[in-house]
Amino acid sequence: MSGELQLDKRLRLCAEFVRRGSIPADIGTDHAYLPVWLCRSGICPSAIASDINPDPLSRGRQTVENAGLSDKIELRLSDGLREIKENEADDIIIAGMGGETIAKIIGDCPYAKNRGKRFILQPMTRSEVLTEYLCENGFSIIAQDCCVASNKCYTVMCVNFTGDIKNTDELFYYTGILNPENETHRRFMQGHIERLRKKAKGDARFDALADRLEEYCGDR
Ligand SMILES: C[S@@+](CC[C@H](N)C(=O)[O-])C[C@H]1O[C@@H](n2cnc3c(N)ncnc32)[C@H](O)[C@@H]1O
């Protein structure tokens, strides 16, 4: 992390969804920038930073030690939430992984359906797979936003379990609750349109979906 409290725009957007005073668990933390930032800025009193791999975890440990936060941030080797107990974290951040991996981590967590837990999710790829999983398994999107960092557009979703099983239109898996009036949200959806157009070369169904998404974004 450069400077005292610098966080790139993508992780900053994740941080915006973390509830003040909550205990976060950052799953797949790697360098542990996010939990360090959350504790340093006073938003969270303590945090868990976990990773499935020892090397990223030791990078995280170094960041935590350098920040003088070893008494507040616990580093833990864990596949998803396997080693994180239900009462240990309120807000669970899973950022920088593919949509399928994020869906699997949630699916494997025995307490994901505890309505008090919030998941802050930032899929690097296949956000539509993650959104479909969430819809089909009773999770609702509380808030969603996008940002541009290093000329790439990212989305972050804040979700919790509500039990509402939505038989949603496939279009929703691409739009989530993004606002077509918002330029950054539109840019994120444009990325989906481009990928759908490429896929349409092998399957015309994707062209129809891309058309609908274009219509949703409007002619601006
Ligand atoms: C690209 S890094 C993302 C780091 C940070 N979360 C971010 O968004 O900048 C992905 C990290 O997720 C970890 N990871 C992958 N699968 C995981 C799993 N099932 N459970 C925990 N960590 C995982 C990897 O070891 C890696 O350190």
Residue-averaged pLDDT, rounded?
A: 95
What form results from the Cα inertia axes? globular
Pairing-aware structural class of the strands and helices?
A: alpha/beta
**What summary fits the major beta sheet?**
7 strands, mixed
Strand order of the largest sheet: 3-2-1-4-5-7-6
The second-level CATH architecture of the largest domain is 3-Layer(aba) Sandwich
Which parts are unreliable, with pLDDT below 50 for 5 consecutive residues or more? none
Number of DSSP helical runs? 8
Task: Give the beta-strand count.
Answer: 7
CATH fold category name of the largest domain: Rossmann fold
How would you explain this protein's 3D organization?
The chain contains 8 helices and 7 strands, in the order H-E-H-E-H-E-E-H-E-H-E-E-H-H-H. By secondary structure, it is of the alpha/beta class. It has 2 domains: 159 residues, Vaccinia Virus protein VP39 (Rossmann fold, 3-Layer(aba) Sandwich), CATH 3.40.50.150; 43 residues. The protein has a 7-stranded mixed sheet with strand order 3-2-1-4-5-7-6, sandwiched between helices. A hairpin with a 2-residue loop joins strand 6 and strand 7. Helix 1 packs across helix 2 and helix 7 packs antiparallel against helix 8. It binds S-adenosylmethionine. The site of S-adenosylmethionine (SAM) has 16 residues, from strand 4 and helix 4.
